[in-house]
Amino acid sequence: MSAVTQSRGVERLVQGQDTQDGAGVRLTRVLTHDLQTRLDPFLMLDAFGSDKPDEYIAGFPNHPHRGFETVTYMIAGRMRHKDSAGNEGLLQNGGVQWMTAGRGLTHSEMPEQEEGAMEGFQLWLNLPSQNKLCAPGYRDIQSDDIPEVTTGNGVLVRVIAGASHGVDGAVQREHTHPVYLDVQFPHANDTVFEQTLPATHNAFIYVYRGSLEVVQGHQATTVPVQRMAVLRNEGNGVVLRAQANTRAILIAGQPLGEPIAQYGPFVMNTREELVQAVDDFRAGLMD
């Protein structure tokens, strides 16, 4: 793996918006609608985390999607997925559900626990126009099947998509070429982690434990817990320096540069395609 010769800096810090989705699940919407163009090909990032069952137990009953992919990464807890294509899987600690909605399906995501912590992320990744009506697909990736690499100074990287330090991730995608890393720092302060990134990729970091700094030359920008740092589009990677036991997700992707037309769970390129999506859903073509 080539070294980072010019590190990206922080363009801005973002505080997520508290909201509810599904049947009343409390979550934080980190990547919101107004960032979709800036962080193309990513459409949304939700962070959820609670040890209060009444904040998650109602789950996400049956609902439709068309035109993009959903990537759910479970840090803690258990969630049962069922969809109209006949797929069913149990998402649990450390596992990933990667669903390609394509031309459309309906699915549900329901907790399979009555107590304890439920924590994780759901990322929406756009599909290029020529793939928006592809056949739906689904992968249930258990924790043991996610490749990991530990750097020489003790940083553990779970490589969900893309590659890190010579290790290929569980998922690769043409067109968007996403990088999705869970970066876990050791029990020591000021540990440094470097990750190369294509210059063309949009990229961001979300800290969900501890605190880190994005280092650019002699400057460093602190990213506190539960904040997202949008990285500037410059340089060939990012350099992070973290406090002990910090954990963060680093996400990057090749922008599609296409129009984004969204109506709730449908993401297409034009308003006409959205109208067609709603008509198809009402006609039962996504069941």
Structure in words:
- The chain has 287 residues and is mainly beta.
- It is built from 1 helix and 26 strands.
- The chain has one helix at 271-282; strands spanning 10-15, 17-21, 25-31, 42-50, 60-65, 68-76, 78-83, 88-92, 96-100, 105-111, 118-126, 137-141, 148-150, 156-161, 163-164, 167-168, 179-184, 191-196, 202-209, 212-216, 219-223, 227-231, 237-242, 247-253, 261-263, 266-268.
- The protein has a 7-stranded antiparallel beta sheet, with no helix packed on it. Strands 2-3-4-11-6-9-12 form a 7-stranded antiparallel beta sheet, with no helix packed on it. The chain has a 4-stranded antiparallel beta sheet with strand order 5-10-7-8, with no helix packed on it.
- Strand 20 (212-216) and strand 21 (219-223) form a beta hairpin.
Short overview:
With 287 residues, the protein is mainly β. Helix content is 4%, strand content 51%.
